[in-house]
Amino acid sequence: MRRAAVVLTALTALALAACTPVTQTPQPSESAATAGTPSAGTPSAATSETAATPADTTSVTPSGSVSSDCLAGSYKLARFVAVGGSTNTTFGTGEGGDVTVTFTPGSYQLTGAGKSPISVTLAGQQATLLVNGTVNGDYTLQGNTAQFTVRDATGNATLNAGRLSRTLTMPEVGSVIAPSGSGTIACSTTGVTITLENVRLELERA
Question: Do 82 and 8 contact (CB within 8 A), yes or no?
């Protein structure tokens, strides 16, 4: 899943570049810099902002084993949550769009119709991701853990962030939103959650 982390980092950088105005910041004088330095007992604004931004801890507790009916049929990709670090800190989310995942015994197909974009939040900045392509893959299931392997990917996706636009290949976008590698499966009556190393995929019955 290293590739997924690299792609997400690139997407975040693009979103930040698109949404950050280019300005020249005057250098503060020595006296102004000294006056603006918080005392030891007063938290800085950056410290307060960091403390006020909790990580997304939403999770579904998996059962000991997963029924074969769980990974069967068609689902809509309702939401993905990109996580990283030892504390699984959230650094990107995506919701909506027209991406579906269809499971058959031992295989899956992820398809983006290319008509309705995913609303993406990257490092606090807004973007859209329009997926127009297909990813085919295989999986094996043991207990509540699945091993996913991507077989092939065709098509592309378009990321729009502010004034900037970038075209991604389907293998690139698939490394983020398609099941790949080892993942924990948690089923409910309305959908399934697949928790991978760097991303959590929340699927709803189509």
Answer: yes
E strand residue ranges, the chain: 73-84, 89-95, 99-104, 107-113, 118-122, 125-142, 145-161, 164-169, 181-187, 191-195, 199-205
Structure tokens, 101? 């995942």
How far apart CA 174 and CA 17 sit, in angstroms, is 23
Work out the burial of residue 21: count CB atoms within 10 Å of its CB; fewer than 13 is exposed, 13-18 middle, 19 or more buried: exposed
Go through 43-66 and write b for each residue having 16 or more CB atoms within 10 A of its CB, e for each that does not: eeeeeeeeeeeeeeeeebebeeeb
Q: Hunting for tokens 């975040």 — which residue is that?
A: 12
Provide the residue-wise pLDDT of the chain in tens; the chain has 206 residues: 454 444 555 555 444 444 444 334 445 555 444 445 444 444 444 443 334 444 444 444 444 677 778 999 999 999 999 876 555 566 689 999 999 999 999 999 999 999 999 999 988 899 999 999 999 999 999 999 999 999 999 999 999 998 999 999 999 999 999 999 999 999 999 999 999 999 999 999 98
